[in-house]
Structures are given as structure tokens and as C-alpha cells.
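Methods: example folding runs. The two proteins below were folded one after another, and each record is reproduced exactly as written to the output file, sequence line first and C-alpha cell line second.
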Amino acid sequence: MVRLSKLPGLGLIVNIGLSLVVTAALLAAGEGLARRFEKPAPARPLADTHGLDWAAEWQGDFFVMKSTAVGWPPWEDFNRDGLRDRAHPVDKPAGTYRVIGLGDSVTLGYGFPRAQAWPQQLQALVDARGPGVEVFNVAIIGWSTRQERYAYERIARRYHPDAVVLAIVLNDMEDLANNLSRPPAFVSALFRRSALVRRLVNAEGREIESIEELFEQPETAKVTRGYELMFDEIRRLRDEVRADGGRLTLMVLPEADQVGPHPHPPLPEERIGVFARAEGLPVLDPLPALRAVGPSAYMDRVHLTPAGSARVADAVMASAAIPAATYTIEPLRSALAARGGPAEPEKAPVDALSALLAHESAAVRRQAAWALGRRGTAADSAVAALAAALHDGDTAVRVQSARALAAMGPAGGTAASDLFTLLDDARPEVRWAAADALSALAIDVPKHLEVLERGLANHDPYIRGFAAWTLNQGGPAAAAAAPALEARLHDSDPGVRTLVIRALGNLDRADAAAVAGLADAVLHERGDGRWRAARALARLGPAASSATGALARALSDPDEKLRCESALALGRIGAGAGSAVPALVAAEHDGSPAVREAAVDAIGRITGTR
């Protein structure tokens, strides 16, 4: 008989097996006890500011909005950079001071129109004082100081800003601390599944739960960690801005309780102020201005109302972030005084300002054009002088003259021909100002078809976009431009292609080339261009029957919007889309109610049973 104990290595195997069984039993018992005594997670109040999980929400640590916009239509909410701002030429115009408003949803203007966000209100404030400053809104919902630094490095710096105002919201420390202290993915997976791991990790004890903790004394270790992470990001941003020749200013945006009847002490402001002074960074505090408004400055714990955003813009304007010399009109005042009239532009006669458009100083000419623009239609007698100034040798004078004409109402339209010549100007800011002015003046599209068709071939996508958008606005009256638009269906710029597709659908001209081009766009365009092409074909109705095959194929596309628009287009084509009925019958079982409804309606229209 062979004794088991004598088998080589068997004892070790038995011991290991017993250890594993005991360990498993202990872990199972621990998991059971942890589940038995685990308390439900408390519901967070609506006003809670608990931060996002970057990995879960964004699949990374940075994002912007997807957009192929080229600046048209002008009210499009997000620009090509994926930011809630108008389009800006990359090249900085001569004599222009560029300011970046860098922040998160508070800076973006969450909850109200773009024009009421504080960077846009700051632009309006400085424009009322003089020309020469351009303000950018570089902000997205959910960003913290880390994403704001990324945004400067990846987006803002290529515009060569002179100043950056970093708007710090008090939940920034929370976002940084909570995201940068998360455990590895394996531990996170265990955390989601195991009550025992949740008890051991104690995530809630490691995280900053609310900005309320920033007002506690003594300061907790996790809040200290949040400040350290934010300060490190600010130092890195400061170094980047300085290396580019710019100046960083910090602005601490308070939370709603700080402007209420029983405000928290300004501990975060003091903490950040000490850091800023030690690092040689200017810091501005809008808290006094917001307290003057009170609770109506806030829509929730951190987000401002338009009135609150206006007070923040006032605070930036009153600070040293934008030097007064960048928008001064002293040269204009001196020139007016030398003529013996009122030195203040708003009191000077229109003819005196018009005469200064020929002054020897380019600064005076620019400021005179600005002053006339501020008068609007009351200065329409200056249109001829401003039209002549469009050909000034100074770039800034040409830009300001175009902007002034845009404010002149119908009278400014008499300068349309001069403005059109500027679409080929060597400087992008001049081309853009001319296009903007022409759009504001609501020009007679049929009268200017030839020059708009030339605009479709301009090397600048902003101008091609303007031409396509303007022809779209012309509708059937611009039908003669269809061949020129068809030639741009394969434009190198996706934003221009989308605008061309929209225009073709609005011309009510269904020649074979247009239908073929739109059908090809349904199948091969990217983004919004595909469903917009289907919508354009719908507008052409029965004349678009040759596109039936492309629209039928699109009914099985993953894009719900495209499927819906394709079904609607087939219904508008009617009897000529009979070959698409089998695809439409299949679409009656689509997962989208809107697609199913459109398919049923299309079948009825095609078969005559509706």
C-alpha cells in the first residue's frame, strides 16, 4: 500500500487547496456581511455639484462639440472648434487685442442664448468703448481646470491671444480630485460589483462630495488635494500663456450662497488669492458685483443667469485684464477737438466724423468709422464716405468701415458692390467683415447672382459658406445659380458642402445633375449633410424620382435622422418612388416611431391609398 503522505508534493497541493477554500469562504462571508449592512447611497439634492466621471461620460479626459460649421448661418450655436462662439479668423488682425474667456458651463452660458454669456457680454461692453478688442468664449459643459488647460493648448493658442481670463468655478477642485484619484479600471470594476470592495475602498470618504466642503475649517486632506491639483494645472497654463507672449488672469466665480442673505465666508477666494499672489498672477473677484444683484444672479448653485453674467462681464471690464489702451479713442477725440467741435464722438456732427475718414492718421480713420457705426441709421448720410473707406490702404479701417455700413440699415445696401469687392481682399478679417455686412444688409440676391457664384469658388471657406448661405436665402429667385452650386457638392470643406446641399433644396430647380448630386450625398456625405440631402430631395418632390434607389438604401442606415428624412422624401416623390415600397414596408418595423410613421405615410402617398 502506498501512503498518500509519501506522494511527492501532494501535501503542498493539499495545503494550497485548503488555503484557497478558506480564503474563498472568508471572502464570501465578508461579501455577505458587507451586503447585509451596506446602506443605500443617499439621494443627492438637485443643487448638488458632484462632478462628472470623465472616463464614463467622455471616454477620455477632454471633449468639444462636433461641428463642421464655417460661420453660416451666423446664429449657429457652435463653431468649427466645437465651442459656443462665433467663428474667428486664425490670423490675428493688426491692431487687435485678443482675449480668451476660458471656463466651463458657467462661461459657456448654460441655460440661455449665446449672446448673454459673459464673454459675449464683455465683447459688447468693449465694443461700446472703442474698436480693437476681440473676445473668445472657450468653454464647454463639464470642463475643469485640466480641460481648460488642454483647450488653451489645443485650440486657443493658435489664435495668438494677448490675454487669457481663467474663470474658476468652485467645483473645479472637486472634479480634479475625484477624477484624478480614481482607482485602476480593474478595481473600479470590482467596486461596482462588490459591497466588500466598496467598504474597503471607501470612495465616498476619498471624494469631495460638494463645494460645501470648501467652506469647512479646518481644511480636510481631500480638499487640500483638490487645491493642489488645480494649482498645478494653473501653473502649467500660466507657463504656456507666458511662453506665447500672453498674460493669464484668474477670476474666481462664487457660488450662489455667497450672494444670499447668509453668505459663506469667502474662504476659497482667499485661498486662491494667496496662491495667485505667490505665483505673481493677477486675480479679479466678481463677488462684490454679484452681491449687488443678489440671488437673482444665479439659476442654481453655480450657474449664472444673464444678469449674473452681465455683472461678471462688468467685473472683467473694470479690471486690468483688458488694458484701456487697447480700445482707446483718444486720437479721434483729439482730431475732433482740432476741428473746433465737440470732442466726444457721440456729440460730434455726422459730417465731421465722415470728414475724418480721410484723416492722415489711420487710427483716427478707424475710430471715425467705429463712431459712425455706433450711430447706426442716424448716420446714414455717411454711407458714401464709408463706401470709399472700404478701399482704404489700412486693413483695420476697411474692417471698421464694413462693420459701420452693416449698422446703416437699407441705406448701407447702396454700398453692396463695394462690399462685394472686399470678398477677394488679401486679409481674412476684411473678407469676413464684408461678408458679415452683406448678410446684415439683406441684399437683393438675384441682382448679385454673378458675384455670389464667384464667391462659391473663393479660396476662403468662410466666403464660400457665405455665398452658399446667401443663395439659399434667395430661394427660387436664385435658381440660375444651380450649376454653380452643383459644382460645389464635392467641396473640400464639409461645412460648405452642407450649405450647398441646403441651398440646392431651396432653389426648386430639379435638373438631373442636382438630383444626382444630392442622391450621391445621401449615400456618401458625412454628418448632417446626408439627412440634409434627403430633405433637399423631398423639397424637389416628384422631380427627384431618380434618387429613389439612394433613398431606399438609406432606410436601413444606422442614422435615425437619415432614415426618417429618406422616408419623408420618398413620400414627397410619390408614385415615382414605387420601387422603394419593399424597403418602406420593412421600415414599418423600424425601432424609431418617427421612422415607422414616415414609412407608413410614404407608402400611402406612393400607392395612392392615403
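Second run, written to the same file directly after the first:
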Amino acid sequence: MRRAYITLALLSAAALGFALRIGAAPRPVTAPKPAWVLDLKEIARLVRLPDKRLAGIFFRSTAGGGPELCARYSTDNGKTWGPTEGLYQLPTDGGGGSPEPLVDSKGELHVFYLKARKKMPSGLDIDIWYTKSSEGRTKWRPIARIWEGYTGSLNSVIQMRNGRIILPFSYMTKRNWAERGEGFDKYTYMGSFNCTALYSSDFGDTWHVSPTQLKVTAPDLGTYGAIEPVVVERKDGKVWMLLRTQHGRFFESLSEDGISWSTPQPTRILSSDSPAGLTRLDDGRIVMFWNNCLRFPYAYGGRHVMHGAISSDDGKSWRGFREVAKNPRRDEPPPPRGDHGATYPIPTTVNDGKVITTTGLPSPHFNLAVDPSWLYETSQRDDFANGIEDWTSFGVRGVDVVSHPRKPGAKALAVRKTDPEWPSGAVWNFPSGLRGRLRMRLMLNPGFGGGRIGITDHYSVPFDNLDEYQNLHNLMIEPDGEIAPGKKLNLGRWYDVEFEWDAGKRQCRVLLDGKQATTLPQYRETLGANYLRIRSTAESTDNAGLLIESVETNVSSEP
């Protein structure tokens, strides 16, 4: 878990037309891929002002005094940013980090931040402090502590349509395995943290803590339970909260008023032990960023990639599930300590229907501009002309882009197990679909030692040796090329291998050169397939392996 009082600085391919059509024709693609906000080098959190300017809010150190709350402004939707302007000078002992800003319905700026405080006789707490502007953001209220204890990162704050301001947060309790609590809590373990919310019904003049203590079971005795919640107001006026957990998925809670909350329940949204980011667009759609990652030791699934999705029905269904950012150091072994990865998204709706989100990556690549239209793409293709950048292949050996053996100037992806001590595999993300078709041009080289092609709905590292049991569909390829009784890929020959999946029917048809070869079962429920996984299953070495000339997908969000 990140201690947010210390500021962290962790770190188009236009969709091509695809002749295959599933359901309605794909909508035209004009949106660019996500791009870094390069001119804003500070680790800032963004707000949109009533005059449509964007403000990046951050703290900077000053000589002989406390930190200064500052802003840089953009008049072109984040492309360029003006000079740093001081907003409010904190007292010498008033320093903190990670300001969380909100512009209210009157145009005033509210800023929440965390400040560490030593406890007696040892240890520390992390309190929540607050200030707000008045008279058109020209004057500031003295800072005040509005909550005392030990909290995690502040990742979200909203003002409801009725004017109430909601600041969700998590806090450390005295709970442990020996003292689990009363009632039902004695029979399980709820971790060391709870979630709740601070709220103000008078534009920040007074603050109150929700009486609801939100708890989620922990998967082992050393984890937190529910932490770092985020919220968004739905169209029906209810506030939807997503809670970070260690169960491989988010939990959710609902509130009619932002004060009392429902008991957290698991959602179908898969996630590592990492927070979500939610923002509502001006037209009412919700955009979500998160780490749709599972089965890695760090953060119960890892943070190698950050994903984005969009919903037009208040989170009942989602489109996208696309990789918006990758950890630039993913090819290196993980650091021995400290947080890392593409994570901690804090998105802001800006102008023209766009979104800018933090990513947890190193400055200046801390903020990322995303066009939500990009999340609606339904087609994707790769022929490896630009290498393997769109794939992940770290922690493995024998995965390379090589010259095509029969097409001068063309490339192909080679997957071979060249070292018996190392796995061999590669992973490719594509737009999510409940139904879809993926076609690859593939050849098994003579001497092939066996492989597996998986279709699934989440990211896991290329060397994940449990993917077979977690994929939606698995095509096992024996060393002789057999994929089903009486059906095989002859070694040394190119094939068009097609996968047609249908989550409603819970199956995936496999075709070889247009003719059905087998039908694969779907092993579990899903919000839609969005990943291709290719692995060598050779027992020792396989210097022959397989080649992929190209891969292309076309998907539909309709069940």
C-alpha cells in the first residue's frame, strides 16, 4: 500500500478494417492512442475551472517556510501549460503531499492533503488536512485538520448534485487476527483497514465522518482488507464506491446520500490489489482506469499495465479493457522495495469529452491524455512491422521478432523455448468483446515441442504458469500439431487459425483455413475477452517453436 503523504514518482495504431463482421459493423475509428501530457512535468492533480481552463495542482518547497500550494494552467486542454503560480503558503509545520483538489459548483477550489504526525511513544499517523478558496479563488481559509488517524492515499473526491461533498478514504484500525472483532467478524478476518467517507453539506465549512464502517474479508493474515476507495455519482443520484481489495476484484458499496453506505459486495471487475480511478464525462458516461492484472506476487496481481474502460449504463456493462499505459521498466526485474508500476489512476474529465489521468509513472510521464472514443474501437491488427512493442514478453526467453522465412522484408513473431530454465510466452491485448473473432497466420516449425494458445479477459505476466486454469479458452497444440482428435496442424505449413468466441454460448469455435476443427469450452463467466496468450509447453528445449505472421481481431460488445 502506498503511503501517499510521500509524493511518489514511480515511474496511432489506427484500428485496421477487418473483413469479418460480428453483429453490427464496427464504428469508424478516428481517436488517437493515449498520449503523455509532456509539458506538465510536476506530479500534479488536475481540475477543470469554470472558464474551461485546466489547473494542475501541486506543492512545491520554499526556502525557510512550509510548502506552497501551486498551480499551472492550460488554455488548450492540456497541450501546453503556463508558469507556476503560487496559491497558498502553508505554515512551516503545515507541510504535506499529494493534494486532492475539487472545484465546487460555485467555482471555488477545495484541497485535501495528507500530513504525517509522530505518535507517542513510537510510530506515526497520517491525518487529513484541508483548505478552500473564496472570492473567486483569490483568498484561502487557514489549513485545518478534518480527520485524525492513519489513512491511505486519497484518490477521489466529488460534489453530489445536491451540493454535498464526499471524500472517501480508508483508515487503519486496531484489528488483528488475535482481536478480530465481535459477532460475525470472529469467524473470519477483515484485515487491518476499513473504508468510510468524510462529507460536508455546507461547502466545506464543517466536516463529518460517515457512521458506516466498510469492511471486506482479507485473503490472508498479513493484508489490509478494504482500502483506498473511489466514488462517482450515478445518474439515479446514488453514489457508487469501488473498494480496493486483495481478492482479485473490486468490491462495491452504494449510498443514497453519501452518508450511509451498503455492505460491500464483490463486483465482476477483476483487479490486482490496486485502486481504481473513476470520472464521469459531461454526457454522463463513466470512464474507469485500473490494473486488470492477476497472479503476480507484488500487489496480488501486479501493476505492469494500466487498463481503461467506458460505461454508458452506470457500470452495468463496459467497453474497452484496453492497455492505456505500461510500466516502462517492465523488462527489468522488479525493484526490491517500494511501489512501482503503472498504477494509481486519478482521472479528470477535461474539455471536448477527453480525460487526463495520473498513471504512477515517472515524471514527466505522470499524466496521460485519453480520448474515450479510443475505448470503443472494435478491431485491431499486428503484423510485427514495428516490432513487439504492443506485446509483453519480459521474464521469458526465445520470444523475438524475426525475418519472415518466405516474405522478404516482412516480419514474424517467433515463440521458442530456447532455455530449459526459462519459460517462453507472449501476451497481446485487444478491445474487449463478449463475442469476437481472432485470426492469426501461424506455422509450426519442424521440431516444434508443443504449445498453448489462450483467450482470456485479464492480464497476467507472460510466464504465468497458472494461465491454463484461468483462461477463458485454451487450445492445446501437441508436438505433432494435433489440436483435437483427427485434427492437426502439419509442421512446416502456414495456416489461418481462427477463434470465434461467444460468451453467451460459453464456447469458442476454432477454424483451420476456414473449416471448423474443434470447439473449446468457456471455463467461467466474463465481461468479455481481451487478451491473447501464446506459450511454449515444451518440456525441455524447443529451438524450433512456432511463427506468427499476423494477428487480427474484430469484437462485439453485444451478448
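Comment on the second run: The two ends are 37 Å apart (CA to CA).
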